[in-house]
Fold each of these.
Amino acid sequence: MVIVVKVGGSLLKLGPPENIVQDFVKMLEEDKLVLVHGGGYEVTEMAERLGKKQKFVVSPDGIRSRYTDKETVEIYTMVMKGKINSEIVLALQAKGVRAVGISGFDGSTLVAERKKRLVIVDERGRKVAIDGGYTGKIVKANSELLNTLLEKNFVPIVAPVALGTEGEMLNVDGDRAAAAIAGCLKAEKTIFLTDVGGVIIDGQLIKEMSVEEARKSLRKVGFGMDKKIMAAVEAIENGARESIISAGNIENPLTNSLLGENRTVIKP
Amino acid sequence: MKTSCEVCGGEIDVPDDAIKGEIVSCPDCGSEYEVTEIKEGKPVLKPAEEIGEDWGE
């Protein structure tokens, strides 16, 4: 079966983690896998090393996000595709996996619409519409390149950089990218590996949720997890069978996501 | 600075130090407007676009 694995940037701060790489290789014995990664933390770190101070803006709902101007999207692509993606490909190649690194814009795999405007809360605490920079909302995912690679037993590793409808490269959310890819491949499972073990509400781990329950839970979970739940729901709405939000910082994190305890399964 | 809401006719109070791009809302119906310019001391407004929060990594 086809499984899409999203590895969150919080798990990649020190490079591809051995626990994930090993378990990924083991899972490839039975399944066809696509890996989508994040890496916002490393983008910020590299940008600052290059002397490009990152600007963060806050939405009216209190969500803090990177402001991606032209220079930032160039650094973003350089780090996501050039560094993080390549490091994952090399780590898997070292284990004998035929990994191929692509970005969302290769083969028009992920097409996004650039957000021309953003509404932020400025330093005076007032709402202001500003130029949107180079972030995008994914509007289309094409499976052709991914299927071609999978049919030849290559393992696609995808960086969350999409092709804009005007030919530009765009910063897109890695979880949403995984959801779009899982949808277009009609994946059996979409596994979101993160630094927490599933969805926790009122101190309780939720083992299973329907899409409807997942939507209702959005306001009861913290920022970060709500975005993951939204992406998990999107993956199913896009055509994938089920989504799993699971701990990536444990031994055998992928095996655990299918059979273990530290996870939340979301079903239609 | 005062102006009226296109939707309900309610009075919208635009702060004197409002800047281009600032979003103001009608206290009566909640409609939101973007300040496009301040012309001769008067704010020029257009209905604010619905902008979702999907800002990338």
Amino acid sequence: MSAKTILYVEDNELNRKIVRDLLKRTSYRLIEAADGEAGIAIALEQRPDLILMDLQLPKVSGLDAVRTLRGAPTTADTPIIAITSFALSGDHQKAKDVGASAYLAKPYSPFDLLGMIRKLLPEG
Amino acid sequence: MDANERDTRVGRSEAIARFLLTRSPLGEVVRRVARLRASVHAKLLGAFLLIALLLVAMTGVSLQAITSVARHSRLLDQARERVDASRRIEQAVGVQMNVIRNALTLRDEATLVGILHDEERFADTLARLERAASPAERETITRIRVAERQLIKTVEEIRSLVRADKAEEAMSLHLTEGQPQYREIATLVTRVVRSEEAGMDRLRQSVEASNQRAVLLMGGFAIAAIFLALVLGFIISWSFIIPVHEAGTFLGQVARGNFGGRIDVPNRDEFGALAERMNEMSRELHQLYDHERMLNAQLERASKAKSDFLASISHELRTPLNAILGFNELLLGEIYGPVTEELKVPLTDIQTSGKHLLRLINNVLDLSKIEAGRMELALDDYAVHDLVAGVLSGLRPLASQKGLALTSAVPDDIPVAHGDGGRITQCLMNLVGNAVKFTQQGRIEVAVDCRDDVLQYRVIDTGTGIPADRLETVFAEFRQADATIAGQFGGTGLGLSITKKFVELHGGRIWVESEVGTGSTFSFTIPLRVEKVETA
């Protein structure tokens, strides 16, 4: 069985590196996108098994991206973890409304994120 | 008379005044009096002088009437005297005629001598009558006098004849000369009497007419004076009442916050000056109001700029801090390889300090949002147990470092609560964080009670305590009980004020009980289920 693929859509390189390093010791394969537009394109093209979506993104916002992906048949059922900013109360509700499977508020503990990923997408 | 009745009465009299002011030339007169360039003092003095003049004129007219009545009564008296005098003469003539006849019959010379003596009195009376007599009457009197002299002559002749004992001749002379002369005198005297009586009648009529005229004049003058005084009073009082009413209306507008209006009164007296002052006041208030509005707008802009700045700077600060905390946690999680126990200590310190810094930054961000009125609660179900456990596990490392016991007392039967668990966690974090900071030894306990669907959280410490006079201000922004505390313990003084705001957003309240040297207990209540959010 091939490794399960996770797409991480996040514009901050350091944040991406944290998740990259976190998943290095696991069997998950990570693919990355730096903005909402690229995130949608890669998700539709590569059909990841799980998507980590930051809600504050350039070009297309994370909420709009989640909405678009939920509308597409290939990604309608893909688990999506929305990563919200602590600063913006109400993001949780909005993330739920557009169809995110779970949410995690920034700043999050990397190991909490890993736990959430494992719950939604058990390692092979 | 109750207030209502008085009001209607006032209303009615005022309605009459309004009618007179708008529908009669009085209104124009009132405005002209108001426009007069004279002081209120001068106007009032003028009005009173006019009324005084009316009184003087009235007195003059009365005096004149009284004088005229007196003069007329004197004239009447005189006329009556003259009528009496002329009648006396008439009587005297008749009497003399009979006396002479009797004297002749008795041949009594003495009586005749008496008659001759009477002549002087007769002449006197005539002379009195002649004074102030009409020309026609004077002529009659002259004729009487002539006839009288002839009669006297005749009587003297008769007397001589009587003395000579010639009775027959004396009688004959009396009959032929004396009697016709008497008759002539009697006729003339009667004419005088008639004339005097007619004069007196005329005088009486004229006096009556003149008295009637005097009464009419005085009555008319009195009515005119009262009317004039009333009109004058109306004019002068309304020339003052109008500006007072206008001022009342105008000040009412100002009182309602309607600045910048103008009061317009015709007066050029003190009331005019007062109105001008009010206009100045109104202008000044309007300018002040505009200025204040401008300042407010500036303040609002500045406040918003500050909030925006705080929001953006705290966001900018958080991004690298996230990375620091994330990588540090990966290091501690031995993602990059094994970490010696020695190295774990400083790495844990980095983690603790980083989280502390993050809390501070979050506080600044929260405050900026609260101030901008953009703080919203994210309501969801939460478990009080988990919430308290989370707070304790977050702060236990810090408490352990200081050797403090950190415990909780949460009953098992607390139902699932509804509210913003994240914010309530923040509140507890702030309170417990403070407790750890200000407690040197002893213990800190987080206790929760649920009574009547209200949760009460208590954070009890055995710390330094807060002096009674500073308990009031601990929840104010940027405030610590003592300025030196900031130096000793650090902190921005934001935690408590933000905690208070969050508690109030949930519809709860917060308070503190403390004793210096013994410790403090911070308590706050939160409804078990928060359904509607208060606006920040």
Amino acid sequence: MSTLSVLVTGLMVALGILVLAGAAALRHVDSEWRHALVDRWTVELDSAHAADADHVVGILQSQSGIGEVRLVPPDEIRRLLQPWLHDAALTAELPLPVLIDLKIDRTHPPSEAALTQLLSAASPGAKLDDHGSWTRDLLRLAEAGEAIGLAIFGAIALTAMLTVAATARARLAVNAQEIELLHSLGASDGYIAGQFQAGALRSTSIGVVIGTVIAGAVVAVLLKGAPSMIPFISQLRLAPIDWAVLAAVPVGALALAMLVTRWTAYGLARRLS
Amino acid sequence: MISFDNVGFRYGVGPEILQDVSISIEAGSFHFLTGASGAGKTTLLNMMHLSLRPTRGFLSILGQDVGTLRRAKMPALRRQIGMVFQDFRLLDHMSAFDNVALPLRLAGQREREIRRDVTAILEWVGLGDALQASPRALSGGEQQRVAIARAVVGRPGILLADEPTGSVDEAIGQRILRLFEELHRLGTAIVIATHNRSLIERFPHARLELTDGRLVRLPGRAVPQ
């Protein structure tokens, strides 16, 4: 196998590992968002009714299914607005709504409709936001990303198989006379396929090791640096099972390459005799 | 050992180039296969070597009916037939030793035995000092002797040779035929395809003459000692 084939093998393995690692990381981000947002609701009071804040907090604290009620300080609200308005002076002058952060008991959540009704009665214009409208979109995006990652991994695996088969075919065609000689000396198709497999094992192993090392380095850098590079992601992590799956990629790639090489070589050896 | 009975052969839908061939090659016999270029000598040798199957008739090799022989049984049967190719067919990326060792490795022989047998056979053909030489570094005659060593190292019951003296000079050609004679004395059945009549006339063996696709057996000539 040529240097080019070794590099192609390495690239395929690296891409496969990276795509799978990305899909697994997205699954964890998805899960993190679900856990972080599903038990957090926000009550918003119009700035004109800021005086109702303590009354509303008292009502909320008395409701079952609400574990924690926190009045968000105005400074924190300004900090949250800062990235969108880019002007500290403007945020200082703006009339800010009152935000009350609720931690919901996930096992026994309060009725959203009943709570909305109660809040309207306590403070006109009060709104209850369960963050569902935008978290659902984000979660769908994460799920789509994961599905696309798995599909790309499948495409890479298929491409890798076809590449291995094409390489084996090319090598066999180049060595057609040698195969004919081996047949005439009494070699079986299985022996010839085995010889090609042994040759492919050496070069494929080199490619697989190169690809694994490259992908491992990239994954390590991304896991460490992603939170500072990617918005909305506080941390990127992989579970032990994900590491096990990633570790299985080079082993699987090698096994698949050997299987495809043997299968192709065996078929062609039969045809060349 | 080899029995042809009304065998015919054609390539694809072309004309029949071997017709009604009926001949028996006995154990320990020595035959020259002669005929003009294109007469079908190589085709006949290829049939004896299981590279081609007859398009009609009955061919038996070492007791196996070639017409019904299963593919899986061919490698073992081929290993009992040594073949010396006209163009040597040595593998340039291997040493002379490894080329000769190939049939033994294919047969699964142990490496220690391979070393012993290959060294002995290369010494026998006069190449004991060229074990590790690349075929490219050898002369035509030396390459031919490596090819002969490879054909006989597995001690086949039958040895087929296609124009083994075709690319060597007269002296080397005679030396090669002496090697075949030695093998013959050891009990190997030998068929040598050649159109070198001057060489044939120096040996007393029977001839198989191919003319217009038909095979005729001619008795060997008396050779003055």
Amino acid sequence: MKVLVTVKRVIDYNVKVRVKSDNSDVDLANVKMAINPFCEIAVEEAVRLKEAGVASEIVVVSLGPKAAQEQLRTALALGADRAIMVETDEALESLTVAKLLAKVVEEEQPELIIMGKQAIDSDNNQTGQMLAALTGLPQATFASELKLEGGKALVTREVDGGLQTLSLNLPAIVTTDLRLNEPRYASLPNIMKAKRKPLDTKTPADLGVEVKAHTQLLKVEPPAERQAGIKVDSVEQLVDKLKNEAKVI
Amino acid sequence: MAILVIAEHDNSALKGATLNAVTAASRMGDDIHLLVAGAGCQAVADEAAKVAGVNKVLLADNAAYEHQLAENLSLLVAELGKDYSHVVAPATTTGKNFMPRVAALLDVAQISDIIRVESADTFVRPIYAGNAIATVQSLDAIKVITVRGTGFDAAAAEGGAAAIEAVGGVHDAGISAFVGEEMAKSDRPELTSAQVIISGGRGMGSGENFALLEKVADKLGAAVGASRAAVDAGFVPNDMQVGQTGKIVAPDLYIAVGISGAIQHLAGMKDSKVIVAINKDEEAPIFQVADYGLVADLFDVLPQLEQQL
Ligand SMILES: Cc1cc2nc3c(=O)[nH]c(=O)nc-3n(C[C@H](O)[C@H](O)[C@H](O)COP(=O)(O)OP(=O)(O)OC[C@H]3O[C@@H](n4cnc5c(N)ncnc54)[C@H](O)[C@@H]3O)c2cc1C
Ligand SMILES: Nc1ncnc2c1ncn2[C@@H]1O[C@H](COP(=O)(O)O)[C@@H](O)[C@H]1O
């Protein structure tokens, strides 16, 4: 089965972003970038399916600036077979990403699409669901376990009250949660090999999709900073402060 | 035009998050319709009709909606949504699951996880794990919005007297099926609505040691939460996770025990009114957001705390 995986280039999850002084956006100049952690989990899941003999080919897709090729190469080093870069310098909203991906899905006809549940920059948590709607495919978001059996995907999802299991007809879209797997590191020989794997570049125009803005970012501000409080020396003092100063117990 | 709010429920009772979404909706306009889609959920509709500020309840009662499958629910909501200026749902795992499908079917953006309404088309939401706060204007005719519960007070559950109208037509995409669920059972308050939360991290060392937290929680009537590390280590189930990718909470009192304070954890709790940190490492970043910090071994502190409360 062919598996399509999406990877987004985002700020490294360890970096704390700063807001630009003109409040126009966050400052990404000279910030360490990486594969979105949830997309890394998506790649790992696909690679495990290939190792298990279930997946035959893994195609990774990224959309955005040319620099995202770096993340595609990382995905290739982790075990993907080939990559598609949809290149544009325009800001891409989730709906546009979903429309572009729908075209890629139409061309590639994968039987399974694995995406991150959330990009840690936008915190949107919507692109996979939108792609599912546009392609008319079933979805299982926030997956913590994925099994392919009898032509269906059996997916356990992390939901507010616990866990839920769904059965989806294939092709299907699965978005990953953190517990699905623990991604491996790319080995040096695999990083070298990845440089020779095919990477196709397309533009939104090639895919026949217009990049349209549905929203306008008016301003970006830093959050209200919390002041560090005091250190107490004992449990007695803590209980006293909570009762008599903060009055929360 | 009116605003359509999608109720969150389990077919027998309305979930609290719905009430916060109704308050958010009331900042966008004043004609609010609440959709209850489920199976055998008349009791939920009756409850919904009493919510203050709700003008009409739409009831779609059919087996196709029993488990809130995104494929089916989104078709229903997108069809109804065409006649509204806003479609609003709580940013719970259910809302996050079906609402983007609704937006895509309507060919509009979704504005996720809003914490404030500036005007009928302008909304405020955290990005980058809450390290930046964006103000976003929608350019679409229909605004599809999910609401972060901690950003809005709950609407009064009583006081309204809305009419209930049945919605005809069934949407069953027939491409997905519910297989089963394992819901955590607890007599404690729900994390997202608790006044007091005590959370444990990797420092707890094991699932058994969470009993120490539970004893304190019993004294305080608190909910028990956890860091991702504690969930990943298998100490506790995933539904207890607080953070950027878990639950967002803002209780009056949040007690973090053996939690270092990674930005992803802070993203889920730093709007709490009073934060207490108990950690043996005085350099732990959690102390930078704590109102009261206690540098000590949690295994000494927790039994003492239980005793003194
Ligand atoms: C994409 C992504 C999303 C994430 N989302 C979340 C999320 O939603 N929520 C979340 O929590 N994390 C999340 N994480 C994980 C996060 O980055 C941290 O790894 C995690 O929060 C650390 O948990 P912790 O503080 O329990 O563990 P640690 O960082 O290991 O801290 C343990 C703390 O316990 C203290 N300690 C140990 N023993 C004792 C003792 N006996 N007495 C007192 N103190 C003690 C230590 O000093 C230390 O400070 C996410 C990570 C990624 C990559
Ligand atoms: N520009 C992009 N390139 C590749 N994948 C993307 C892009 N934007 C979103 N995605 C995928 O969609 C998931 C959810 O993103 P979001 O809806 O923005 O939170 C991400 O984890 C990615 O897998």
